[in-house]
Write a structure and sequence with these properties.
Blueprint (H helix, E strand, L loop, with lengths): L2 E12 L2 E10 L2 E6 L7 E6 L5 E4 L1 E6 L12 H10 L2 E6 L11 H11 L6 E4 L1 E2 L8 H6 L5 E4 L13 H12 L4 E5 L15 H7 L2 H18 L2 E4 L8 H9 L4 E5 L1 H5 L21 H12 L5 E2 L31 H11 L4 H16 L15 E11 L18 E11 L2 E2 L10
Parallel strand pairs: 1-4, 1-5, 6-7, 7-8, 9-10, 10-11, 11-12, 12-13, 13-14
Antiparallel strand pairs: 1-2, 2-3, 5-15, 15-16, 16-17
Helix pairs in contact: 4-6
């Protein structure tokens, strides 16, 4: 066997095990996963330090790149450079915050053309479901969208309006004809009060209670039950949602759900007054809620941890006033997702293999990304050298995403990405990514 590269590690995450291994790469794919003592000849060999673990490249299925249209918020070059620096080798771009939004095949073509010459990691796309475009969803699917995203309340941008119950059922009815996937932002407008113009985080949090999520999820479950369509709840923040999900799965509703690093690592009690870098929707809740989300991951109710990287310009965060009511909601975390989650997981005694399952194999399975999310023969040679015990302090100036804003600024984190390979090649500085 002629190999281009061998990466040898005393510890490698292979499936659900942490084992010594030598991973042989040929033609951009994993050709062989061998024991540490095996002899593999290759053009190049990398032997990782003993304090480093070999991981599969992470898959982040919830990234707002915003290009074209709002490229000053984020763009494909900067987002994918941040991804590679954080050990993320595949992202799926959300359909809104760019202009045009990805709500038909023509808009998807615009998005792909903008991305193609710039991407440092592999990139796929979600389409969008908005009122009146149910007839466009099959064409979006056929053009390569992995599924469609909808909002069940105001999205924050006028070009991507929410689905009311009738339009939700119309979209799901159409998706069911070809087994398409709908992913939904689940908050109920009727349960939300206008965010007060206040520097106190507690005032903003009170405006978006857990009931907003539970009502919307209950409605989504009912619609999925009626239509038989596949649905997925994005960024679960309220643990009160978990019993609804468990019951729906038990009765055969085709529903899955994810959560995000900020809901697992942050707590409402710790957000300082005026610190609008912590604002996101749905919001970061209290520590008891955070504990319950970890339990939801442990029991399989939540199957993915993805970033919901939702950046904007610093001005939109309203650092001048610290007004949570006026600030844009979104947390930029693409580059930091792995160390953020691993820091919190390690403190709880959660093993690294579980983190990798939630951040690599789980998202790949959700989107149907064949050949991604695990180290196995025939899979893309997307690999990460990760030092799980090394610590660092987050310096926003060193982050690769476009704007120097982070809820983790100055935070001490555990776990450093030392190298990332995309299909066996060093990732990050060159546009080696492919459109999926």
């Amino acid at each position: 066997m002629s190999l281009d590269l061998v990466v040898a590690a005393r510890r490698a995450v292979i499936g659900d095990a942490l084992v010594p291994a030598r991973v042989g790469v040929a033609g951009g794919r994993v050709a062989v996963v061998a024991d540490w003592d095996s002899s593999l000849d290759a053009t190049g060999t990398v032997v990782l330090d003993d304090d480093t673990v070999l991981l599969p490249g992470l898959v982040d299925t919830h990234v707002h790149v915003n290009e074209p249209g709002r490229t000053e918020w984020e763009g494909f070059a900067t987002a994918t450079a941040a991804a590679a620096a954080g050990g993320v080798t595949t992202i799926l771009d959300m359909p809104l915050n760019s202009i045009p939004p990805t709500v038909d095949a023509a808009a998807l073509a615009v998005k792909r053309a903008a991305a193609q010459p710039q991407i440092r990691v592999d990139v796929g796309f979600w389409g969008g479901a908005i009122p009146g475009n149910a007839g466009d969803l099959r064409a979006l699917h056929d053009a390569g969208a992995y599924g469609v995203k909808c909002f069940l309340l105001d999205s924050g941008v006028p070009e991507f309006p929410p689905l009311d119950p009738a339009h939700l059922r119309a979209a799901l009815t159409e998706l069911a004809t070809f087994d398409g996937l709908l992913i939904a932002h689940c908050e109920d407008e009727a349960a939300i009060r206008p965010a007060p113009h206040d520097r106190a985080y507690a005032a903003f949090l009170a405006s978006r209670p857990p009931e907003a999520e539970t009502r919307a999820v209950a409605g989504l479950i009912e619609a999925a039950r009626e239509t038989g369509a596949r649905v997925h709840v994005v960024h679960v923040s309220a643990a009160a949602v978990l019993p609804l999900l468990r019951a729906a799965v038990a009765e055969g509703v085709r529903i899955t759900a994810e959560t995000c690093p900020h809901y697992l690592a942050l707590a409402a009690e710790d957000v300082p007054a005026g610190a609008t870098q912590f604002k996101c929707c749905p919001p970061v809740r209290d520590a008891a809620n955070r504990d319950a989300l970890w339990a939801g991951l442990a029991d399989g109710t939540l199957t993915c941890v993805v970033s919901d990287h939702s950046p904007c310009t610093p001005e939109l965060k309203r650092f001048d006033s610290g007004d949570f009511g006026a600030a844009w909601g979104g947390i930029s975390s693409l580059q930091l997702s792995l160390p953020v989650v691993w820091t919190a997981a390690a403190a709880r005694g959660v093993p690294l293999v579980d983190v990798v399952r939630w951040m690599a194999a789980g998202p790949a399975r959700l989107a149907g990304l064949a050949g991604k999310g695990t180290i196995a023969a025939g899979y893309d040679a997307d690999l990460v050298a990760f030092a799980p015990d090394e610590e660092f302090t987050v310096d926003v100036a060193a982050l690769r995403h476009r704007n120097p804003v982070s809820a983790y600024a100055g935070r001490r984190l555990r776990g450093v990405v030392r190298s990332t390979w995309l299909r066996g090649l060093p990732a990050g500085d060159l546009p080696l990514g492919r459109l999926l």
